[in-house]
Write a structure and sequence with these properties.
- This protein is 32% helix and 34% strand.
- The protein has a 3-stranded antiparallel sheet. The chain has a 3-stranded antiparallel sheet with strand order 2-3-4, with no helix packed on it.
- By secondary structure, the protein is α+β, with helices and mostly antiparallel strands.
- The chain has 2 domains: 30 residues; 81 residues, Protein of unknown function DUF1093 (OB fold (Dihydrolipoamide Acetyltransferase, E2P)).
């Protein structure tokens, strides 16, 4: 019985460590902040890529609160000048992007681009 009582803290510590790892993995896989940007083709670089991603943009992007962040992402083609994009990001970078209209921009982002 004494041996069992001595092992309980170790078992609890292992279970807590497993729970923390599972939680961290869930957060990293499901945390996808959204940023908005406007295409500026002067910020476009042609990169030598072994896959279909031949171009790389480095643009100022803004979250829904208007907080600025420089983000790099690759595309397979040159994008339409002055088009607005919504970027879905992950821990590793841009996961996906799609063109959006001005009316789909959050108010704080729209104000930044109207200046």
């Amino acid at each position: 019985m004494e041996e069992l009582k001595e092992k309980i803290p170790m078992v609890i510590a292992v279970l807590v460590a497993i729970a923390i790892c599972v939680g961290a993995i869930y957060i990293f896989e499901n945390y996808r902040p959204i940023y908005y940007t406007r295409i500026d083709n002067t910020k476009l670089e042609k990169v030598s890529a072994t896959d279909d991603m031949k171009y790389e943009y480095t643009l100022d992007c803004y979250n829904k609160n208007g907080r600025k962040k420089g983000i790099k992402f690759k595309t397979s083609r040159q994008l339409r000048e002055s088009a607005y994009l919504m970027l879905e990001c992950t821990f590793l970078g841009v996961h996906s992007w799609q063109e959006v209209g001005t009316s789909e921009l959050p108010e704080k982002v729209r104000v930044i681009y109207e200046k």
